Every structure is written in C-alpha cells, then in structure tokens.
Amino acid sequence: MSLTVEDGSGVPEAESYVSVAAADQHFSAIPDHPWGQADVKTKEGALKRAAVYADMFTYPGARKKAAQGLKWPRTGAIDEEGRSLSGLPSALQSAVFEIAGQYVSTGTDERQISREKIGQIEICYERRKAGPSFAFRLLSLIGATAKSTELSRG
C-alpha cells in the first residue's frame, strides 16, 4: 500500500497531509505511544482517516487547484489573526498527527457508541460534553468551521 501525500502544490491524488515518516518522527518524541508499534498499513490508514476528518470542515479561501485531492493548499485563506496562509499550515499537520494518533491508540475517533441495535441497524454516538476536541481547536486556528447538519423544509 502506498500513501500519496500532499506537498503543498495541490497534488491531484493526495490522501494525506503528512507522510508516515513525518508521523513516525512526531510520535517518536512521545514515550510509549502505540504509533511506534503499529504496522505501515495501520499508520497509512490512520493518516488517510485523519485527512478525511480534517477535510470535513469548511475553511476560508478556495482550493489552490480544482483537481487537488484534499482541501489544502488554499488561496485567500487567513488565520484567526488575519495572516495569509499558504501551503500546508502547521496547525493542519499537527491536527492530523493528533487525529491519526487517536485512531491508532483506540481504533476509533473520539466518539463513543452509546446505543447499538442490530436488527434494522441503529447506531447512536454519545454527545461530547467536554467541548471541541484538541484537533478541532487546532483546525479552528486556520479558520475551520463545522458544516451545518440542520435540515430545513422549504
């Protein structure tokens, strides 16, 4: 399995914002983190899922290229202090490390199933009461906002 990593130029087939090597280096500084024991396939899967998570938010500006695989890099994007963002912001990459680390540590994202029904399939996730996750707080530094999930009839 091979991971196609965004390099800041708008890679069309990009699946991740960081490489396995970059994640390995990041997690090597955290003693006893399960990332070090995970196999490459698990790491690549976690990095892909982390990119999907990061891309579920709305960001300021527009994609740099119409055909790029992920939402970043962007043009016209600014951070919370009004500074121009180019390439792949460090807050984005840090958030991806956090999310991927969570997937490897627990096998899930931060939501926990609170109800499960097998016949006619029903899954319910508990609502988090602690506020936004650390990863979302990092992404909000680069303008991430949650998409509305409200439906309206009209």
TL;DR?
With 154 residues, the chain is an alpha+beta fold. It has helices spanning 20-28, 40-55, 90-106, 134-140; strands spanning 62-63, 74-75, 113-117, 122-125. The chain has one domain (20-140).
Strand order of the largest sheet: 1-2
> Tally the helices: what do you get?
4
Radius of gyration: 17 Å
H-E string: HHEEHEEH
Counting helices, strands and paired strands, the structural category is: alpha+beta
Give the strand content. 5-15%
How would a textbook summarize the main sheet? 2 strands, antiparallel
Low-confidence stretches: none
Instruction: Tell me how many strands there are.
Output: 4
Shape: globular
Mean pLDDT: 86
**Count of domain modules:** 1
Distance between the termini: 46 Å
- The portion of residues assigned to helices is 25-40%
